[in-house]
């Protein structure tokens, strides 16, 4: 059994947990404010490490 972890700040609240129901392992991310959820596979997670905070700015400004 896997354990979910809640992460929060003054700007967002999410729950992250491993998911093994698909063809391979992935990470489930649930936005507690909107109820939206996304699943990220290892390749997508590794790609995030290539991005700078500046690269993410357009997504953060337009997310709410």
Compute the average pLDDT: 92
Shape: globular
| SS strand fraction | 25-35%
Structural class: alpha+beta
The radius of gyration over CA amounts to 13 Å
Low-pLDDT runs:
none
Q: Percent range for helical residues?
A: 25-40%
Order of helices and strands: EEEEHH
**How far is the N terminus from the C terminus?**
33 Å
Total number of strands: 4
Main sheet record? 4 strands, antiparallel
| Number of alpha- plus pi-helical segments | 2
Count the domains: 1
What's the arrangement of strands in the largest beta sheet?
1-2-3-4
Commentary on this structure:
By secondary structure, the chain is α+β, with helices and mostly antiparallel strands. The protein has one domain. Helices cover about 25% and strands about 35% of the residues. The chain has two helices and four strands. A four-stranded antiparallel sheet has the order 1-2-3-4. Strand 1 (about 5-10) and strand 2 form a beta hairpin. It is globular. The model has no long low-confidence stretch (mean pLDDT about 90).
What is this structure's SSE topology?
Elements: E1 5-8, E2 13-19, E3 26-31, E4 37-40, H1 42-48, H2 53-61
Short description:
The protein is α+β, with helices and mostly antiparallel strands. The protein is 25% helix and 33% strand.
Question: What are the salient characteristics of this protein?
Answer:
alpha+beta; four-stranded antiparallel β-sheet; 2 helices; 4 strands; 25% helix
């Amino acid at each position: 059994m896997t354990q979910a972890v809640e992460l929060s700040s003054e700007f967002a609240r999410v729950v992250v947990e491993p998911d093994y129901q698909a063809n391979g392992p992935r990470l489930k991310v649930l936005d507690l404010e909107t109820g939206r959820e996304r699943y990220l596979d290892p390749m997508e997670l590794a790609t995030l490490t290539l991005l700078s905070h500046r690269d993410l700015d357009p997504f953060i400004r337009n997310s709410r």
